[in-house]
């Protein structure tokens, strides 16, 4: 979970870094385009040019994304989508991202931001390790901050801004657990799976079927976990199914998108959008 201390620290760090950039590239998990972007301190970015990047579209149910893209566009953001795991990141940054930011800057400096697990390090690390691309401290910007140049006029902060979503209801918490952005505590794991199971039964039964290697899912989430454990031979001593292991494995593979494409966010889930 996220503790107030973390949030305070992240917030002050981001505030310092924000002084050195003109733009912010905010990553969201396309499977939860709203829940993964319900920040507590949204106003931090209000003076910056902002792009919202729907990442992981390879594992998102694209037909559900139109509403969310239109929603962000209506709020004045530029919206892009990609799968950072599948594309050439350097070329995506120079050919798409750079061109989407307004052209008023001679040298564009951008912070990459987003909640945990949305792909920030995947993006930044792909540019690292190539010595010639590393520019170190640049005159005129905060000392000690490392920059990575993408091309002659475009640099990224090498420290991504880690944001924390505003978990103001359980549904958001469960969605964030299902996409792997929040590590569940105590019984949250089981509640998130119960939530996910009921959601899949209604909207994406094939996800459950795939998880059960082709078997039809049962009525109840607990029975589902038993079947899942049985399929994988997760047995504890005493010949019982290892439900704990089944839960962890199911969650991990689900968050990695192994069972199929999904979108968890629907406008009717949010009072504020009604
Ligand atoms: P960060 O916490 O925001 O820095 O996220 P990471 O860059 O560490 O990525 C979290 C996980 O998502 C890693 O396992 C990545 O391989 C995976 N990932 C990143 N981008 C994509 C994508 O476009 N598609 C899929 N399927 N996985 C991705």
Automatic annotation (TrEMBL):
GTP binds at residues 55-58, 117-122, 161. Keywords: Cytoplasm, GTP-binding, Nucleotide-binding. Pfam families: MMR_HSR1. It comes from the Bacteria. The keyword Cytoplasm applies. GO terms for molecular function: GTP binding; GTPase activity. InterPro entries: G_CP_dom (IPR030378), GTP-bd (IPR006073), GTP-bd_ortho_bundle_sf (IPR023179), GTP-bd_ribosome_bgen (IPR019991), GTPase_MTG1 (IPR016478), P-loop_NTPase (IPR027417). The keyword Cytoplasm applies. Gene3D superfamilies: 1.10.1580.10, P-loop containing nucleotide triphosphate hydrolases. It is found in: Cytoplasm. GO terms for biological process: translation. Its main location: cytoplasm. One of its GO terms (cellular component) is cytoplasm. Residues 8-165 form the CP-type G domain. Belongs to the TRAFAC class YlqF/YawG GTPase family. MTG1 subfamily. PANTHER family: MITOCHONDRIAL RIBOSOME-ASSOCIATED GTPASE 1. Required for a late step of 50S ribosomal subunit assembly. Has GTPase activity. This is Ribosome biogenesis GTPase A. The lineage of its organism: Bacteria, Thermotogati, Thermotogota, Thermotogae, Petrotogales.
